[in-house]
What we know:
The complex is a heterodimer of chains A (370) and B (262).
Chain A: E1 6-11, E2 17-25, H1 33-38, E3 44-55, H2 57-70, E4 73-75, H3 79-88, H4 104-142, H5 149-160, H6 164-187, H7 195-233, H8 236-243, H9 247-286, H10 290-300, H11 303-329, H12 335-366
Parallel strand pairs in A: 2-3, 3-4
Antiparallel strand pairs in A: 1-2
Helix pairs in contact in A: 2-3, 4-9, 5-9, 6-7, 6-9, 7-9, 7-10, 7-11, 7-12, 9-11, 11-12
Chain B: E1 5-16, E2 19-30, E3 34-39, H1 45-52, E4 60-65, E5 68-69, H2 79-82, E6 85-88, H3 100-111, H4 117-130, H5 147-158, E7 165-169, H6 177-194, E8 197-201, H7 205-211, E9 214-219, E10 222-227, H8 229-234, H9 238-245, H10 247-261
Parallel strand pairs in B: 3-8, 3-9, 6-7, 7-8
Antiparallel strand pairs in B: 1-2, 1-4, 4-5, 9-10
Amino acid sequence: MADAADFIQETLPDGSEIVRFSGNLAIASIGDLDARLHDLPDSVAQIDLDNVTHIDTVGAWLVYRTAKKHGAAIVNADKDAARLIEAVSGVDDSAPVAPVHVSPLNRFLGEVGMGVVVAFTTLLHFLGFVGQVVKASAILMLNPGRFRWHSVVQHFDMVGVRALGIIGLMSFLIGIVIAQQGAVQLRQFGAEVFTINLIGRLTFRELGILMTAIMVAGRSGSAFAAQIGTMKITEEIDAMRTIGVVPAEALVVPRVIATVVMMPLLGIYASMMSIIGGGLLCWIILEIPPETFIIRLREVTPMTDFWIGMIKAPVFGAIIAMAGCFQGMQVEGNSEQVGLKTTAAVVQAIFLVIVLDAFFAVFFSEIGWD
Amino acid sequence: MADGNIISVQGLCNSFGDQIIHKDLDLDVRQGEILGVVGGSGTGKSVLMRSIIGLQEPTSGDIHVFGEEMIGKEEDEATDVRRRWGVLFQGGALFSTLTVAENVQVPLREFYPDFSPDLLEEIARYKIHLSGLPAEAAHKYPSELSGGMRKRAGLARALAMDPELLFLDEPTAGLDPIGAANFDNLTRNLKETLGLTVFLITHDLDTLYAICDRVAVLADHKVIAIGPIEHLLATDHPWIKEYFSGPRGRAARRGHAKRVDK
């Protein structure tokens, strides 16, 4: 296979041009033949394959293409070459392989339009999905026998118990950071003792729940989307439907309930860990003993702060679980979709959680829980 | 390769834990033939193919492809051999995020990065044509294709590098009888046009009768018989008897005889 493919151009006595191919006209040895063949003059009338030692379909294609372009005749093709050229010659040239090119402006406008359409249809589908879940929950309440306790308990474990380590560590560190930053700033006014107010109110009211929600969205919301999305691709969900199992009942409701129940518990736990972290720092840096810290904490943190956290947590939990399950259900077609929808589930969940958190903040201030 | 064997497997042993799949399996595939590989479920047809193409390290044994030792080769050492074969996996195994044309171009881009985009497109186009797909299929995604079209697209990708050897894993499984018969004809035509050697795993008795030059029967951890179907019909191994002389086997033989008469 050492002889590279090549061709020479000759002028015949009658003035017409002939192209003589030689060597191994195969994919591995054609080199720059493609580019050189494009530069041939129009006057080529014959293509000679007499000196070709071996030919494959790529070689046959180049010969056929050149012959067609110049209207040249192919001569001295052996049996193999003739067969291959015949095989590749049926291609319909008119159909473009690449998608049709569109101008950047059109593409931009098209993408904006698609974005708007997708946003609205997603919203619509999401509302429909929430409706389905509510309906499925209502049906389950009327028929408690169909309720999947097993699945719920399993998700308690996945969403709650297995998250204890990471959420505890994260909250502990956040408590330390709040206390440390608070102490540094408040020291300027000689008001270090207010660090305790900062820790107590911030963790119960806002950060404990919010950070837990973000962690649960990243851990469990994404897992829901990926699990359900994969089940969609492997047609498991279709199989469920044909058997008579309602996917919303079997897959979505247990996940939503598990997350709704686990979020407040994780939220309390996260707030506790933050306070332990903050208290530890107060003890070491500000030399406030733990007893004093706790007494002071009880004085400055109203019970309403705790209730605010406990009201928000299940709502956030429902949003995270629904966004995860919804995006999982939106998967169609290929495996890339699973990744895209999993990302969308996390982004959507965190976004919605933060938007709602802002509403809650205004709402609770307005009703006087500040 | 002096003896005309493209693939030569000697003393192949494969086992997963305690489960023995192959024991002292020998198999030769001759140049230019279509070799059908049959066997009951779990007899290791796919494992045999995966061992030959290097997706699975056998427990022991020798495998030569194009006269080159394949066992113990690193991925990058085997690329010279790899570019001389094409593989069609059972489900097509198309890259789901690429169009059919882009799928066909993947091996070309990998081995021949210097090819111009135009040439790559032209090659993709005629490969798609060779595999019997309509030209519109070129810029469709695999999820937009039917099962039969996906197999053809997988075949187009397997043919991308102008292979000398083609591995087909149950190419007609899941196709309707007409689609399966068309695929058989396509395989036969491509083999004749492109001078391919084909290693074909199948359960389809019609395929065996219609296009296979020889058939290898896997059972009891090894190849218990190999040869043209008439030759296999003469053996008295119970599994082979049941396979070829069961109701489906007899129907396929009758169908084949009718076609030959015509």
